[in-house]
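check this:
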Amino acid sequence: MHFICRSFIGSHSSTSWSQYWENEPDDFDLASQKGHLFGLINLDETTTLGRDIIFELNQNYYSSDTSLDVISSLKNTLNSILENPLFTNSGLTILVAIVLKNRLYLAILGNGRVILSRQNKIASILVGHDNEITTISGPVFSQDKILLTTDLFFRSIGWNRIKYFLSENKIQTIEENFLSALYSLNNQENQSAALIQTQEEENLPPTLETDREPDSIETKATTFPKKNILKKFFSKPVFVSYHDSYQVNKRKKINLAMAITLLLGLGLISYVGYRKNKASRIETQYQQFKTELDQKINNTLTLKNLNINSALESAKELQTIYQQMSILNIHSSELADYQKNINILLTQTGSDNTFAPDFFYDTSLIVNNPQFNHILLNNNKLYLLDSNTGRIDLVDTDSKSIKNLLINNQLKGLKNIIENSGSFYVYNSDSLSLITKTGLDSKIKFTSPIIPTSVQSWNGAFYVLDPSNSTIWKYAPNSSGFGAATKWLKEGEKTSADATSLAINGKVWTLSTSGQITPYSLGSKSEFKLNQKLEINNADNLATTTTGENLVFVGDDNVVYIINKDGNIISKYNLGSLKALDLTLNKNTVFVLCSDQKIYKINL
């Protein structure tokens, strides 16, 4: 079996060194028992130490007991290196491949990986771990490609690109792709790999044999009488017959055809060379753009946690770089992944040109000319309140079946719908009422000076946001319904005068018009600060869940903000021309009721 080998070694430095090598003993008997060895070494030490390790590995393996199988010999050899105190703390990685009698034996010491490409299948067949020896063996076939790679090389080039490179048929194309990817890396330390392609030996024609030695073969020369030659030559005049003229013309045509063929061949070679050089230039340009794009994506992700508006501008710059890459018309699958990631960044930073929320339900299927303005999620069911015409309907989020709960003029002019201990309530500026099958049953009267802006429930009690009095009122349940209002905030604590909504998940959270979020615990303000300033004129519809880590609200009617409880702005989604009337959420999904009377969802 023959082998075609290519190595891809990054530039060395004072702290890293890599080397690829092969070995097969001259002794035929030993070679037939130990096979052909391929090796790749990477370490954080000097060249001298690396060559000492290679010498010791070759020496130990080929001098080991021939009665041992190949895998055992490899393990013993690598274990002797691993236990040698001279080689400790060297960041050592060794990958060894042995081919013997159409069988492949692989071993890794340290962090490395072996990838096999066979026909149209590519798989990672062996992964090494720090200070461990891992092995595997199996049959090897003609045209198999075996890639030995350090862990850093694998992560830097990327699994998708490695599979793409190895899918090429020509070894030269694979080599050019890997070298181009390697040289485009800013840091090439500890970046090394080796590619081995197997192929069957060609059947050579049999050797011609003779019974006599070359020196013993006799040669004879034929002689002609000189007189006869002269007589024959001068006996008649010399002339060129028409047959000779035909042969001359024929030769001219043959020579002309050969010249044309040669010119065409030279032209074809020049064209192929031109195309190859052009492809190389395009690949180099692509890799330069790719390096810039990767760095810009990382910067945008970092900036997203610091200033989401600046992150949006950075994401738009990503789109410009991507467009320059796409013009090169190569690596389409990788470009598709980049476009997807860029669109996600644009969407999560508030671009109104890329975000298209997932459609969930059209409320016109419930009633003609719907006017729903409030939404609540409870036990996988969406409750919709239409306070204009006076109706409440239910949509099952799993089956999308619908059910009308109540149609009553008493529902007109109500502010919102709330769940409390399995029952549902609605409220307005005067009272809070239980929803029954026939109508509303008033449970709480909001007496002066209470002016409710937002109401939520927790552990059976109702909490009422009253920014006009800068406080939060609590109505605790009792045997007859609910007790009288008590100030829940401790003495000296106040809510913002422009607070718009309330949400509870153990802590009580308030939201102001400008987007300021304030948490309270046991009636006292808790420590909380957004990691960046929001530029909002009208924030409302604050919501959270009892188990989730996120707070969501609507800013300026068409932007949905996602914020975690540590004060980090996760993302903001711009609905464009749509206006968000209300929203609700579970742990993983935000449901938004929009002005077109459709319900959309945003996956967290």
The chain has three domains: 2-199, 264-355, 359-603. Confidence is low (pLDDT under 50) at residues 203-244. The radius of gyration is 40 Å. Residues 2-199 form a domain with the Phosphatase 2c; domain 1 fold (CATH 3.60.40.10).
